[in-house]
Amino acid sequence: MQKNSIQTLSKLAVPLKSKGRFFKEKKTHLRSDFQRDRDRIIHSTAFRRLKHKTQVFVNTTGDHFRTRITHSLEVAQIARTLSKFFNLNEDLSETLSLAHDLGHTPFGHAGEQALNDCMKKLGGFDHNIQTLRIILFLENRYYEFKGLNLTFETLDGLIKHNGPIKNLKKYKEILGIKYFKNKIKFNSSPSLEAQVASISDDIAYNSHDLEDGLKSNLFSLSDLDNIPILNKIVSKHKKKIKKYSIDLVIRQIIREIINEMVKDIITTTQNNLNKNNIKNLKDVLKSKYPLVAFSNKMKKFDETIKSFLRRKMYYHQNVKSNTNNGKKIIKKLFFSIRKNPNKYINVSKYDKTNIARSICDFIAGMTDRYAINLYNKIK
Predict the structure, then answer these.
(1) For 365-378, what is each residue's pLDDT tens digit?
(2) What gap in Å lies between CA 54 and CA 206, rounded to an integer?
């Protein structure tokens, strides 16, 4: 089964047989290396916690708004579609999609800013680097090693979620760069599978945040009239409101937005591959970044949507009051725990040489409600 898959994958794909892991393990004929990676992510504690972590709305505000786990599943679904079209390594794209948000704090980006403030003189905080801390050191599920011992290709894709790494300063301070023993080329382009996961993240949070914003009445369909591409889709479906419920109409609009963005990526990526004469995986890794991309027209649409969501949703008074409250909770927790770490964490499980980073790991791993409950006990 896997032999056939190896033969049918594109020459641009990451092969199903990995270059390896930091700790050697016995192979299994039941699953490929990347299926094992995906399964390790899904079975991790950090992944389970994502169901109680904020996407935009704090997890206590409603049952049907997105959380980090639903967002990650939606990213994976889009990434598999794109990977299948280009005949890439679908399991790798899915693994990267499922893992990309593991390092998020409670209360979304507000929590991240607050932890970064707390750690300013101690290396700072970055959710992408925190994802790596989780999979390299913090998940503890095996006798033989700490972390999940994922393949080098998966690590490479997670490190380069936003492209090649030009500045290693934060990585050295938060992660300890020597750990990688020259197995990762930080300044080369990521694989197409990693690029697919990254752009699928963009599609998912743009389209689904629009849906959550409309359903929570932070803005209405009429507010979307001035957004190019979107206005045509909205005006077509608005006519159906007399016949169908507003919820169903919104769902159809979101489906069509995702479809338009996926089709645009396919066309643009094919053009980029041809234009840059990309023939194999080596060409991909040496090429200029990104190859998997939106057209200029869709890029403008993507930027307009992000700007609209910032104005109407992320900075909306109701959302901001929740996120400001989240910042206050995180800072209170950090400084209270720092006064007496033994009271709150099992210090022997953590790095005693850097207790502030251990506290940071502990808080970053919390769900929204765990953080709120602990804050209420402390204050």
Answers:
(1) 999 999 999 999 99
(2) 15
